[in-house]
Amino acid sequence: MSLILLKRLVLFLSALLQVLGLILIGYGILLLYTGNTYSGGLVIIIGFVIMIMAIFGFKAVMSGAPIRILVYVVAVVLLILTQVVFLVIVSHGIKDGISGIISDGFERLWEVERNKSGALAYYENWLHCCGVNSSEDYWIIHHAIPSSCCLDNKCVDQSSVYKAGCKAAFTEYFDDKFLVFKIVCWLLVIGEAVGAVLCCLLYSNLKNET
Predict the structure, then answer these.
(1) First-to-last C-alpha distance (Å) of the chain
(2) pLDDT digit string (tens) for 83-115?
(3) pTM of the model
(4) Do the Cβ atoms of 197 and 9 come closer than 8 Å?
(5) Using CA atoms, how far apart are residues 39 and 90, in angstroms rounded to an integer?
(6) What is the number of structural domains in the chain?
(7) What's phi and psi for 146, nearest 5 deg?
(8) Taking the CA of residue 188 as centre, how many other CA atoms within 13 Å lie in the half-sphere pointing to its CB?
(9) Which range of residues forms the domain containing residue 50?
(10) Could you list the residue ranges that cross the membrane (predicted)?
(11) What is the mean pLDDT of the chain?
(12) How far apart are CA 6 and CA 109, in angstroms?
């Protein structure tokens, strides 16, 4: 593989890693918004570290200095190991933590709903759900099913009432978002591994030229 082609491939991967790092930062902000401060902060930090590493790799390749490229390879290998450990440990922690937050949040909303109708209306309209667990929640507290529980806000009959509870609907929504996080993380690991191999080849070629 030619030296010019190697440089172009590494530069392309560096740009791609910067984009994925930005996506990871965005996901971390989402975690902060949902109340998971610790996990959200960690994800944002990793996103920033990845972006900084990608920029450093870009500059190292542009400089053509073998020692800088070697330092970048070592740093990337350490970063990959850190990410794999983080992904294995935190993936379960984030999901379990968020599940608890979702459950507590909807239980608090339901307490409000008992005293003042409309507390769940936003989620019912957004997620096409009804009550915390199902529409039967309203029958239990002797409240009429609100229009937000029905298709087009029109409760014509039982068939027009949304079947899913809002807690389950929101959990499913978050699971989809969590899947994006895992995909981005594994893409980062794969991209970094490929980049490290290419940088090793680049380092070898540059050393042979000197």
Answers:
(1) 18
(2) 787 777 656 555 555 566 677 788 888 888 888
(3) 0.58
(4) no
(5) 8
(6) 1
(7) -70, 160
(8) 34
(9) 3-209
(10) 9-32, 38-58, 70-90, 179-203
(11) 82
(12) 56
